[in-house]
Amino acid sequence: MKKILFAMFVAFLAVPLFSLPNGYSSAKLGMDIDSLKDALKNDHQFGYRGERDVSLSPSDGQYLIETDGSLYGYSFLGRCWFQFSEEKLYIITLNLDRSKVDHYSVFSKLCEKYGNPDELSPQKSVWRDGSVIMSLEKPLTLKYVDAKTFEGKKSSSNVQKTTAENARDDFLDSL
Question: Rg of the Cα trace of the chain?
Fold first, then answer.
């Protein structure tokens, strides 16, 4: 009986206590563009104004929606960006209104809800759960990223490190 309880306890510890949200409010990662447009129309805190907030990159067929929550006095959001890949929302970027909320309050709440970040630096805090990457970046930007799509894009990229990036890596390796 003790072995069974111990095994259950170990299994409980192996499962993350909190899964990360897959977006904010009505905007969820994986939505198609029409679903997101409808959601933004009905969620005034984003400040979505319609088709004029949507742009398309003709070279790769990627959509970007930019909104401005500061148009509505009660919103805690400033400019927000919604990036699509293969017609699915894969990055949500929310600039929070620094006159209404501060970095420490947001960071503290995220730690309370999702535990300590997986990465912490002076520029950003990052939480991961396998399907979502959530980051709080300075001065006050909250990002939700579809991890699978992001990693796929990163691995298919042919961008080489710059000489400065290689020199930085060499310096850090020498420590």
Answer: 19
CA distance 61 to 87: 8
Question: Residues of the chain with pLDDT > 70: what percent?
Answer: 82
Give the integer Cα–Cα distance in Å for 115 and 92: 21
Rounded CA-CA distance 100/130 in Å is 31
Tokens read off for 167: 């020199």
**Over the stretch 117-137, which tens digit does the pLDDT of each residue have?**
999 999 999 999 999 999 999
